[in-house]
Write a structure and sequence with these properties.
The complex is a heterodimer of chains A (228) and B (801). Chain A is built from seven helices and ten strands. With 228 residues, chain A is of the alpha/beta class. A six-stranded mixed sheet of chain A has the order 6-7-8-3-9-10. Chain A has a four-stranded antiparallel sheet with strand order 2-1-4-5, with helices on one face. In chain A, a hairpin with a 2-residue loop joins strand 1 and strand 2. In chain A, helix 5 runs parallel beside helix 6. Chain B folds into four domains: 193 residues, no CATH class; 158 residues, no CATH class; 221 residues, no CATH class; 138 residues, no CATH class. In chain B, strands 6-3-2-7-1-8 form a six-stranded mixed sheet, with helices on one face. A six-stranded mixed beta barrel of chain B has the order 10-11-16-13-15-14. In chain B, helix 2 packs antiparallel against helix 21. Classes of the chains: A alpha/beta (228), B alpha+beta (801). The structure holds adenosine-5'-diphosphate and magnesium ion (MG). Magnesium ion binds next to helix 1 of chain A.
Chain lengths: 228, 801
């Protein structure tokens, strides 16, 4: 069996912010890999740097030190434009706040990134919409939907272009438990269908347990996974 | 408590001095534009009033000789002996060194108080001894600064002296002008009791006061236009004040919330904010008034030149400080700020303590507003059309203007949304689709600024179309109307005969022009008699004419009437006009007669002489080779000692008119650029307001694979797109505005209609200006967006928003 290519590779990555109170180190010497098709849960207390790690993984930001490879590309050495292209073509993002584009309809939101990337597949998107249960809402605007529905639109948007890597930052954090579970089932199910790799931040050990691997962040450093 | 709240509010400005500057600049600019136009208007008007009231000519009757010669001193003495209160004036023109100065010699001891002669009799700066003795000329500062003939008595600067004239003692005037007899006698309105009517006591003719002189009527046209412009700039100014205040409130939303959350009562917050608005309005208003003064002072020489040349009105090119418009300007700033602030305060009062930004909810509420505005706009535009079709009078004209402009402004957001929606349908590609949809979502926040831009552009198109039409028509008309090269007016029949002989000796053609005041169709009017000559047949422009018009005029079977009479009396070709005394004649043609308030008719020379046998032939048109015109004019003036305006040189008049129009264009051009600048500023403040709220809308697009610089370019493109669309709507609005000014307001006010000319080249230029303005307005917000650190964009996705 051939060793699968790493989707994500971090070696001794550090990241900090400059705040009014001075420099704030957030990630310290983080190393990890995520292989294609793998699912990984990232846990840790609030403020431990989970989102910061996700943003690096999403080529939204660059590390201060260390090597960061996203889909085989060294992100640290890329300019704005090239990083934008990596995001557009390779990555699907799901946020806690949904962060849909308010001026576009549900249908337009779902197709947006796929069309930008030139990876829009009508049939696939159609099936996706049906499975997300959004067929009746395509011409509505995001704010006319419930939270669960909005998050399903965000999942549709992340998956429509069939990217290699899906990053979900507390995708159910804003939803009640029943809705959250339903949405998560759908996400895992769809990720499995497309064969994408998934890294998901969650607070819940129960949800983390459903992933193939678990990582725990504590004060900006990776620790052994806590398993209940 | 109040102090702490106060500190909380104002610390915002300390931390964001740029925002404070924007707010003050916005208020100041709006005030400056308004008060600048007002200052020009007020100053020019005050100057006419001074000119019109020279020696009370607008109030006092005068005694003159029927033949226009000076009044014999003996006649004056006889009247005084009989007890009549009359006062002699010697008036004439001094020439030399290429300069001219009107001299008005008065008799201080007898001049009626209504003449308001500019001499303080008791004390003061003016030395009565010098005035009555060796002589002294009272002139205003502008006259003193200009070119003057040599060897004048000492000058004394007196602000109340009329423009381009010197007041002096009658003895000094007699010496300077070498004329001992008074030019005319001023008649005191309060004559002693028991005396018979003046007309029985003398052969002199009693000339009534010249009420509302021609100058006033003519310059009114120009002022009407400036006033219309002032109104428009005021509207544009209100929009910008509104935008600036809105920005100031939007930026501090979170501070308000915090203050409320820590327990500052709502009433106190509102009270503090209201006080803040007033303070800012007063400070910025004062800056604006000063700025407006500077604008007016810069532009006034141009305006003065325009009026002086175009209408012969003397106004000084210098600006005095007038407290009325300064206070007016401040009042506008405070009022505008209060109106804008009231709305913002209501929003603060209604603001929930805890609220997240909900762009679409806001957009939906705004969509409702847009619909209401659309309905109102439709109603207003229909009203404007109806007034234009059936309305009557000046008031209707202005109502039509107002309805048109407000209607167009209100229609703008709805029409823009429609256009954008249409474009979305045709758009290919997700990014363009998003750009258009997103632009549509921004409309409510930008609509005020865009309305200001629309008004600025429409005003620009409207006013320059009007001025341009005025120029094209007037110059063309002048060209034809003054077809002869030289016009000479003699003072007496005898002088006319001499001139005739002098010119006939040189083999020149003389076309006599006779005129008299009479009545036409029951109203006072002028009738002219003209010779039958190719000069008229070939050159005279007629608005409407029967086919054999010139033959009928020549043989006395038809009359031409001017446009004013034609429109006022609702006449048509073939209708009869009644000369009183004289025959009834059918109208065979109508000519335009710009600037003349009264009715006029032209008939053939022989019919004129039959009808008005006593009228002397004093005026002639002369056909001369163009290269001889100047020499002949000088020769005529010197030989017969004719006043300057008795020999009119067609080429000179034309040249002069052209220069005037150039000046007018410069003035309106400068005002136009200013208005556009103010509108651009409004756009900038609105874009800055939106920028803060836009990050959550832009961050996802960035995250999904766009660079910040792409997004920044989109912001710029959006601004250009909106400016172009707004221009598209401003063009018809501006043309409609010009049409109303030319065909409705001008006709209602002055009785003549200007044909409308259009200048597509100017539109292109304006479009370029509009795009530059829009680009400048968007440049800063776009640059800021391009430089937003990723960390700031990432905060949007942070959970603890
Ligand atoms: N853009 C930023 N600027 C400054 N500090 C930041 C920024 N983003 C995150 N932080 C800080 O970094 C730390 C880690 O944040 P984050 O990665 O969001 O934690 P988590 O997602 O695990 O709750 C926190 O202390 C947070 O305040
Ligand atoms: Mg987080």
């Amino acid at each position: 069996m051939i060793e699968p290519t790493p989707l994500l590779q971090l070696q001794s990555v550090s990241k900090g912010f400059v705040t009014n109170e001075g420099p704030l180190p957030v990630l310290r010497d983080v190393s990890m890999t995520l292989l294609a098709g793998e699912t990984l849960a990232l846990t840790g207390e609030s403020g431990s740097g989970k989102s910061t790690l996700m943003h690096l993984a999403g080529a939204l930001d660059v590390p201060d030190a260390g090597i960061l490879q996203v889909c085989g590309v060294n992100v640290a050495g890329l300019g704005d434009r090239a990083r934008a292209t990596v995001r557009r073509d390779r990555i699907g993002l799901v946020f806690q706040q949904f962060n849909l584009i308010p001026s576009l309809t549900v249908g337009q939101n779902i197709a947006f990134q796929a069309r930008l990337a030139g990876r829009y597949d009508r049939t696939f998107t159609g099936e996706l919409i049906v499975r997300l249960g959004l067929s009746d809402h395509l011409t509505r605007y995001p704010e006319q939907l419930s939270g669960g529905q909005q998050q399903r639109v965000a999942i549709g948007r992340a998956l429509a272009g069939q990217p290699a890597l899906i990053l979900a930052d507390e995708p159910t954090g804003n939803l009640d438990e029943a809705t959250g579970d339903a949405v998560l089932d759908l996400l895992l199910d769809l990720v499995a269908t497309t064969g994408a790799g998934l890294m998901m931040v969650t607070h819940s050990g129960r949800l983390a347990a459903r992933m193939e691997r678990q990582l725990h962040l504590s004060h900006g450093a990776l620790a052994a996974p806590v398993v209940d | 408590m109040v102090y702490t709240a106060f500190q909380g509010l104002f610390s915002h400005w300390w931390r964001h001095p740029g925002q404070l500057l924007t707010l003050l600049a916005g208020l100041a600019l709006a005030t400056a534009l308004w008060s600048g136009v007002q200052a020009i208007n007020a100053e020019a008007r005050a100057a006419y009033d001074r000119a019109a009231s020279t020696l009370g000519q607008d109030q006092l009757s005068r005694l003159v000789r029927a033949d226009g010669q000076p009044v014999p001193l003996a006649d004056y003495v006889a009247l005084r002996r009989a007890g009549y209160l009359v006062s002699p004036v010697i008036s004439g023109e001094l020439r030399g060194d290429g300069a001219r100065l009107r001299i008005l010699g008065i008799d201080l001891l007898t001049i009626p108080p209504q003449a308001q002669a500019p001499v303080p009799i008791t004390g003061g700066d003016i030395d009565i001894g010098q005035f009555l003795g060796d002589g002294m000329l009272l002139v205003n500062a502008a006259t003193a600064a200009g070119a003057l003939p040599a060897d004048l008595p000492p000058l004394s600067i007196t602000d109340t002296a009329p423009p381009a004239a010197a007041i002096t003692d009658i003895g000094t005037a007699a010496r300077l002008l070498a004329q001992t007899d008074p030019s005319y006698l001023l008649v005191d309105p309060d004559q002693p009791a028991g005396l018979g009517p003046l007309s029985d006591a003398t052969d002199l003719v009693l000339a009534p006061p010249t009420q509302a002189g021609d100058i006033t009527r003519l310059t009114d046209s120009f002022h009407l236009n400036l006033t219309a412009f002032g109104l428009l700039s005021f509207a544009v100014g209100l929009f910008i004040v509104h935008a600036a205040i809105g920005l100031a409130f939007e930026q501090r939303r979170s501070s308000f919330r915090t203050l409320r959350a820590v327990g500052v009562p709502l009433g106190q917050l509102i009270w503090l904010l209201a006080a803040e608005i007033i303070v800012f309005a007063v400070v910025a208003g004062a800056i604006g008034v000063a700025l407006g003064y500077a604008i007016a002072a810069t532009l006034l020489p141009g305006v003065a030149g325009t009026l002086r040349g175009l209408y012969g009105a003397q106004i000084d090119g210098t600006l005095g400080f007038n407290a009325v418009w300064a206070i007016g300007g401040l009042a506008i700033a405070v009022l505008g700020a209060a109106v804008a602030g009231a709305q913002a305060l209501v929003r603060v009062a209604k603001m929930p303590l805890l609220a997240a930004a909900q762009p679409r909810a806001w957009a939906i509420a705004a969509a409702r507003t847009t619909r209401v505005q659309g309905v109102a706009a439709f109603g207003l535009i229909i009203t404007a059309v109806m007034i234009a079709m059936w309305g009557d009078g000046l008031l209707a004209g202005f109502a039509c203007l107002a309805a048109l402009l407000i209607g167009a402004a209100l229609a703008l957001p709805g029409l823009l949304a429609l256009m954008l929606r249409g474009a979305e349908r045709m758009a290919r590609g997700p990014f363009v689709e998003w750009l258009l949809a997103d632009t549509r979502q921004q409309l409510p926040g930008l609509s005020l600024a865009l309305m200001a831009l629309l008004l600025a552009l429409s005003a620009n198109i409207g006013v320059s179309t009007m001025v341009g039409s005025f120029r094209a028509t007037f110059v063309g008309w002048l060209d034809q109307r003054l077809a002869s090269e030289l016009y000479v007016t003699a003072r007496t029949e005898a002088e006319a005969a001499e001139i005739r002989v002098y010119l006939a000796d040189q083999g020149l053609i003389l076309l006599p022009i006779l005129s008299t005041e009479t009545r036409l169709g029951g109203a006072p009017a002028d009738v002219f008699g003209i010779a039958d000559d190719a000069t008229y047949r070939d050159n005279w422009p007629l608005l409407v004419a029967a086919p054999d018009v010139w033959d009928r005029v020549a043989d006395g079977t038809g009359a031409l009437v001017n446009e004013q009479l034609y429109r006022r009396d609702g006449l048509r070709l073939g209708d009869t006009v009644t000369l009183d005394p004289g025959p009834n004649l059918p109208i065979v043609g109508v000519y335009s007669d710009y600037g003349n308030p009264t009715g006029q008719a032209i008939i053939g020379l022989s019919l004129f002489r039959e009808t008005f046998p006593t009228v002397e032939t004093l005026r002639f048109a002369l056909r001369v080779a163009p290269d001889q015109v100047a020499d002949l004019a000088t020769a005529l003036r010197d030989r017969f000692d004719l006043p300057t305006d008795s020999v009119l040189n067609q080429a000179q008049i034309k040249q002069f008119s052209l220069e005037i129009f150039e000046q007018t264009f410069r003035v309106t051009g400068a005002l136009n650029i200013l208005t556009l600048g103010v509108a651009a500023f409004a756009l900038l403040t609105s874009l800055l307001t939106l920028a803060g709220m836009r990050l959550p809308q832009l961050a996802p697009v960035w995250a999904l694979g766009q660079t910040r610089s792409t997004l920044a370019r989109v912001e710029l493109a959006r601004s250009l797109l909106l400016a172009t669309l707004t221009f598209g709507l401003a063009l018809p609005t501006g043309l409609a505005l010009a049409w109303v000014l030319l065909a409705v307001v001008n006709v209602a006010a002055f009785g003549w209609r200007l044909p409308m000319h259009i200048f597509p080249g100017d539109w292109l230029q304006l479009l370029i200006f509009a795009l530059i303005a829009a680009a400048l307005a968007a440049a800063w917000p776009a640059l800021r967006l391009a430089r937003t650190p990723p960390a700031a964009l990432l905060k949007v996705f942070a959970h603890e928003r």
